[in-house]
Amino acid sequence: MKNKLEFAVKKVSVVTFLYFVVFLMMAVICHFAGWRLRAWFVQMSVIFMGVAFFIGIIMSLLKSASSIKYIFVVLFCFAAFIIGGIFLFFMRVSLGEEAVVTRDGKKYVAARTELMGVTVKYYEYKNFLVSGNVVRIKEFYDFTADEYNDNPVTTYYDEEG
User: Fold this and answer.
1) Which residue has the higher pLDDT, 34 or 75?
2) Pairing with 9, which of 24, 32, 135, 161 sits 20 to 30 Å away (CA)?
3) This prediction's pTM
4) Do 100 and 125 meet the contact criterion of CB atoms below 8 Å apart?
5) Domain extents for the chain?
6) Separation of CA 29 from chain center
7) Residue 8: Cβ within 10 Å count
8) What gap in Å lies between CA 117 and CA 152, rounded to an integer?
């Protein structure tokens, strides 16, 4: 049983590390190509790596023969859920929501964030995994002045942003 657990810990660690390296390489390649990874892919990758890291830590703690290991496992799980929940909340708020929209006859990725109003930034659509990293259109809906503000402040940008 102990050999299987050690093998599983090594396998989870290796797979997580390889996924992190591939994700990092994709982000660097996208940056130099003038693209950006879509928010859903970044969120899913961070969640996958976080869960795999969490599983690896728990499996490593369970390898020890001490009876105090269960206290450490419970404390680690509690801390991970609290810190992880806060991290996921801020990640979700900072990345916002994305949708593929057609505007002015072109496909865009609309990235929507909310903080004292709604800001929608339109990036050039490339495919389901990446989009352009230069803002083409920016709309700001100011709800502090009027709750039902349907007239956004729209800014159009050229090819350079």
Assistant:
1) 34
2) 24
3) 0.75
4) yes
5) 2-95, 97-156
6) 17
7) 14
8) 10
